[in-house]
Amino acid sequence: MNRLEGVVTKLLCATDGSLASVKAIAFAVEISKAMQLPLTFFSVFPPEGGNHTDLAYWGAIVVDLHDIKPESVLGRAVKRASDTGYYHVRCVKAFGKHIAQAISDYARVNQYDLIVVGTVGRSGASRLLLGSVASDLVNRAHCGVCVIR
Questions:
Q1: Which of 2, 22, 51, 57 is deepest in the core (most CB within 10 A)?
Q2: Residue 125 is assigned to a structural domain of this protein
Q3: What is the pLDDT of residues 1-15, one digit of tens each?
Q4: Three-class SS string for 30-93?
């Protein structure tokens, strides 16, 4: 099956639990619901044991919705979707230290058409010191990136 250029068929929403990502979740849920698109919530975590210090990103797992704690980052994302009546979601937990690379690699390998991510919109010295996942993601991603502020 050929994928149509510019047509969104799968949406990936990256979240870290911040206020910026809460806004991104709300946007992603509304777009997915309106267009009846499958929506995946994606969050990157530090390693669970082992020594992965020389790896940027070491995999992702699909998490069963029944195993997600409601107070967790992914649990709050799922609750936002279900509160609006949208249930066509799944969650992925990734492990890594380079967040933008983990998001973009997962989106590319799994053929997502759009990535939604939040940002606080830092600029100048604070951006240089803190970096910007959203900016890095825009530069790395194979597909469109919607940055919510």
A1: 57
A2: yes
A3: 335 556 899 999 999
A4: HHHHHHCCCEEEEEEECCCCCCCCCCCEEEEEEECHHHCCCCCHHHHHHHHHHHCCCCCEEEEE
Tens-place pLDDT, residues 60-92: 889 999 899 999 999 999 999 999 999 999 999
Q: Is residue 94 part of a domain?
A: yes
Q: What does the block give as tokens for 140?
A: 């790395």
Helix (H) or strand (E) holding 141: none
Let me know if residue 92 belongs to a domain: yes
Domain hosting residue 80, numbered range: 11-132
Q: Which amino acid is present at 107?
A: A
Residue 23, classed as helix, strand or coil, is helix
The reported pTM is 0.86
CATH number at residue 90: 3.40.50.620
The rounded percent of the chain whose pLDDT value lies above 70 is 81
